[in-house]
Design brief:
about 50% helix; alpha+beta; Cytochrome p450; 16 helices; five-stranded mixed beta sheet; monooxygenase; Cytochrome_P450_monoxygenase; globular; iron
Length: about 450
C-alpha cells in the first residue's frame, strides 16, 4: 500500500531489534521482560521463519494466506499453547477467550446478541456519562502534569463497570486495578517451566496463580451479587451487559449460563474490555502529542459535534483512522500463539502435532513487504480506497475467534479520543522516548507525564 504524504510522518520509538543469532536461552530470558524485543530483522522481512521451541518446531507467519489458513480455514486444528493457557486461565477461567470445542460454540452463540452494533448503541450513554466526568476532572488539572495512562485506565474501568453493571466503580475500582496490577507484574509473565511443561503438570507459579484465582473469582462473584440485588424492573429492556448476558440463551438449545460460567464471562469482558482499550487510548494520545498537526485534524473533525450516539461516532472518519493506525503500530494483543493438534501443511511447510505457530500482529503490522513506511504514524493510510488485506491487519484477531467485543471497543475508543482531543490540547512534558513492551499487552515501559490545556 503506497502512502502519499505532504509532510514527513513521525516514526515513534521502538525497542532495538534482537540479533538474528540470539541464543535460545538469551531469547528465553528476554521473553519475560519484553517479547517484542526478542525478534530480529528477519522477522520483519521474511514471510515464514522456522525455528525450534523445545521439542517441537516453531513457525512465525507473516504471509496473509498462511495466516488465513491457520485462523480461518483450519482453525479447529490449532489451540492455545500451554504457556498461553497458564497466563490467561487464572483471570479468565473457562470464559469465551479460552474455551474450546462445544463449550466455545455454546458461549459464542449465546453471547453474540449482547455485542451487536445495536446492543453497543444502547450502551453509549454509559460511555458519554463517564467521559463527561473525566473531562470535568481533567479541567481541574490543566495547571499540573498529568499521567494520562492512569487516567485512561481509570476511565475505561469506569466505563466497563457501568456498561456491565450500571453502577460506578468508585468503591470497587481500586480493588479491581490492584488485581490487574498484581497479576500483570508477576503472575502473568511466562517462566521457563510454564513453557516447558504440559498444562496438566503444575508449575510453582501455577500454585500462586491458583491462589490468585480463588480471590479473583470471589471478587467477581461479589460484583455479580451486588448487581443482582439492584435487580431489573419486570418487562423493562436490558439496561447493561449483565442483563444481556444473564438473560442470554443459546438459540439452538435454549440453555443459559450457570453462575460459575457467568463469573468467567464477566471477568473476561471487564478485563479484556478495559485494559486493552486503555492501552490503545494511551498510545493514541502519545502519538498525537508527538504529532501536533494530526492532533489538530482530530480536534477540527470533532468541533461542533455532540458525540452522544453511534451515528455521531460513525461520522468521525479521521479519528477512527487514528485509532486504526494506533492499533496497527501498537496492537494490544501483540502475539497470537497456537499449538497444532494434528499434522498440517502451512504454505508448503510441514507442521507436526505440538508444533507452535506464532502470528504476531506486532511483526505483521510492521512487515516491510506488506506496508509502506511500516514504522511511521500515517492515519490516512486507513482512509484509502484500498484497505489493507484482511490478514495483514489483526488488532482483534480474525476468523471464527475474532474478538466478539470489537464493535464495542472501536466505538468506545473513537468516542473517547474525539471527546478528549476536542476538549484539550495534549503535549508531552519531557522528551524521554516511551518504549513499547510486550508483556500481556503492548504496554509502555514507563508512564510519561502530559500537559493538557483547554481548547
Amino acid at each position: 500500500m503506497n502512502i502519499a504524504s505532504v509532510r514527513r510522518p513521525i516514526i515513534p520509538p521502538t525497542p532495538p531489534r534482537a540479533p538474528d543469532d540470539l541464543s535460545f536461552f538469551g531469547r528465553l530470558a528476554m521473553i519475560r521482560r519484553n517479547m517484542i524485543a526478542t525478534w530480529g530483522q528477519r522477522a520483519y522481512e521474511e514471510e515464514i521463519i522456522q525455528g525450534r521451541f523445545f521439542l517441537h518446531k516453531s513457525f512465525i507467519l507473516n504471509q496473509p494466506d498462511a495466516i488465513r489458513h491457520v485462523l480461518l480455514n483450519n482453525y479447529e486444528n490449532y489451540t492455545r499453547t500451554p504457556a498461553g493457557i497458564r497466563m490467561l486461565r487464572p483471570v479468565l477461567g473457562d470464559g469465551l477467550l479460552l474455551a474450546e470445542g462445544h463449550s466455545w460454540t455454546f458461549q459464542r452463540r449465546t453471547l453474540s446478541p449482547a455485542f451487536t452494533p445495536r446492543a453497543t448503541a444502547n450502551l453509549v450513554p454509559h460511555m458519554t456519562a463517564v467521559l463527561d466526568e473525566t473531562i470535568a476532572k481533567l479541567d481541574a488539572r490543566t495547571s499540573e502534569p498529568v499521567d494520562l495512562r492512569e487516567v485512561m485506565q481509570r476511565m475505561t474501568l469506569e466505563i466497563a463497570g457501568r456498561t456491565m453493571f450500571s453502577f460506578g466503580m468508585d468503591r470497587h475500582g481500586p480493588t479491581l486495578r490492584n488485581f490487574v496490577m498484581e497479576y500483570g507484574e508477576r503472575l502473568g509473565r511466562a517462566y521457563f517451566l510454564d513453557m516447558l511443561l504440559p498444562v496438566s503438570w503444575p508449575t510453582p507459579m501455577d500454585r500462586a496463580r491458583a491462589r490468585f484465582r480463588a480471590r479473583w473469582t470471589e471478587f467477581v462473584a461479589m460484583l455479580i451479587a451486588e448487581r443482582r440485588t439492584a435487580g431489573k424492573k419486570e418487562g423493562a429492556p436490558p439496561r447493561d451487559l449483565f442483563d444481556l448476558m444473564d438473560e442470554a440463551r443459546d438459540p439452538e438449545t435454549g440453555k443459559g449460563f450457570s453462575d460459575e460460567q457467568l463469573v468467567d464471562e464477566v471477568a473476561t469482558m471487564i478485563l479484556a474490555g478495559h485494559e486493552t482499550t486503555a492501552t490503545a487510548l494511551f498510545w493514541a494520545l502519545y502519538l498525537l502529542a508527538l504529532d501536533p498537526e494530526t492532533q489538530e485534524e482530530v480536534a477540527f473533525e470533532t468541533s461542533g459535534e455532540h458525540l452522544d450516539s453511534i451515528a455521531d461516532i460513525d461520522r468521525q472518519k479521521f479519528t477512527r483512522a487514528v485509532i486504526d493506525e494506533t492499533v496497527r503500530l501498537y496492537p494490544p494483543a501483540f502475539l497470537i500463539a497456537r499449538a497444532a493438534r494434528d499434522k498440517d501443511n502451512v504454505a508448503g511447510a510441514a507442521v507436526s502435532r505440538g508444533d507452535v505457530i506464532m502470528i504476531a500482529p506486532w511483526l505483521l503490522h510492521r512487515h516491510e513487504k506488506l506496508w509502506d513506511q511500516p514504522n511511521a504514524f500515517i492515519p490516512k493510510r486507513f482512509m484509502s480506497k484500498e484497505p489493507p488485506d484482511r490478514f495483514t491487519y489483526l488488532p482483534f484477531g480474525a476468523g471464527p475467534r475474532v474478538c466478539i467485543g470489537a464493535p464495542f471497543a472501536q466505538a468506545e475508543s473513537v468516542l473517547a479520543l474525539a471527546r478528549l482531543i476536542g476538549a484539550f490540547r495534549v503535549e508531552l512534558v519531557d522528551a524521554d522516548p516511551v518504549i513499547p513492551c510486550g508483556v500481556v499487552t503492548t504496554q509502555p515501559d514507563h508512564s510519561p507525564m502530559f500537559r493538557i490545556t483547554r481548547r
